[in-house]
């Protein structure tokens, strides 16, 4: 399988400095086929729905699901909804929340995240990737988009378990959302080559960070995940991956630092160190993280709540 998040070799140094390199796998888009009318027989039309594709059959489990785009308080969001898990407030449902890379969008669910999401629906879990306001890190816009998405989901489903997955720049929002328990019943999270310290990103690429925070460095600090108390990681599960060769999201300042912070109190935390080969400046989310995430989440599901 090809690397879903490889950075093109032709990427310019200027785009690296601007932060575009943190938008791994951002280019894939989704179009609703015109050949057939949307199927509402198994999954009814959702509030704010603006489109859905033909019914999809998963690659391995041959389970049917709907690819649905909705708008939640102005934030476009994509969901993979299995036919086995239509909206219900009486039956528990599992959710996998994806946090797209900086420079990417909600469409990453059909791009960088599609390989794993297609297999997760085999287990009856709903997959969701909001736009989170765009590439706006842990700004108030992103946090409000998370709050709105959570409220939207909880009005439709009884969420019995949630897992979180981020790539690259989406890691900061994952950390903040997990630490603040902004998503219900979190069982664990997979943080892939991800940002943890927003002030490190601010120091090295201010032009890609400050506009999202009203050009206020104090606002960046206020929602920087590194300042969450260590106690927020108590009874959490974290699988963290990264490359010591990464010059875009330096391993010691992000992946390894998050690992060290959570280690004394977490239920489980582990660090997967991998090569930076295939990614410009050593920044890459290798395809091995896909299988690793699926195996890890399946084990955590079996083990039950922390």
From TrEMBL:
Keyword GTP-binding (UniProt): no
Domain of life from the UniProt record: Bacteria
Record keywords: Signal
Signal peptide: 1-36
Protein name as annotated: Alpha/beta hydrolase
Organism: Rathayibacter caricis DSM 15933
């Amino acid at each position: 399988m090809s690397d879903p998040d490889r950075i093109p070799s032709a990427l310019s140094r200027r785009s690296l400095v601007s932060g575009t390199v943190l938008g791994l796998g951002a280019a894939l888009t989704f179009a609703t086929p015109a050949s057939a009318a949307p199927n509402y027989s198994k999954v009814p039309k959702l509030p704010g729905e603006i489109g859905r594709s033909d019914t999809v059959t998963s690659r391995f489990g041959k389970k049917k699901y709907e690819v649905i785009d909705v708008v939640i308080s102005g934030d476009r969001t994509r969901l993979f909804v299995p036919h086995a898990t239509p909206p219900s407030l009486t039956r528990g449902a599992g959710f996998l929340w994806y946090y797209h890379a900086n420079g990417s969008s909600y469409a990453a669910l059909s791009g960088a995240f599609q390989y794993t999401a297609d297999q997760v629906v085999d287990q009856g879990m709903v997959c969701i990737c909001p736009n989170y306001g765009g590439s706006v890190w842990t700004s108030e816009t992103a946090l409000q988009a998370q709050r709105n998405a959570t409220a939207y989901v909880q009005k439709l489903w009884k969420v019995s378990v949630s897992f979180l997955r981020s790539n690259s720049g989406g890691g900061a929002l994952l950390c903040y959302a997990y630490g603040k328990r902004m998503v219900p019943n979190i069982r664990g999270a997979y943080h892939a080559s991800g940002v943890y310290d927003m002030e490190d990103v601010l120091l090295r690429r201010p032009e890609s960070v400050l506009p999202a925070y009203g050009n206020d460095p104090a606002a960046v600090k206020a929602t920087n995940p590194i300042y969450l108390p260590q106690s927020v990681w108590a009874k959490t599960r974290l699988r963290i991956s990264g490359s010591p060769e990464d010059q875009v999201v330096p391993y010691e300042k992000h992946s390894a630092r998050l690992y060290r912070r959570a280690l004394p109190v977490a239920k489980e935390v582990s660090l997967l160190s991998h090569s930076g080969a295939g990614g410009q400046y050593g920044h890459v989310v290798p395809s091995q993280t896909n299988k690793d995430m699926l195996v890890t989440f399946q084990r955590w599901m079996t083990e039950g709540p922390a």
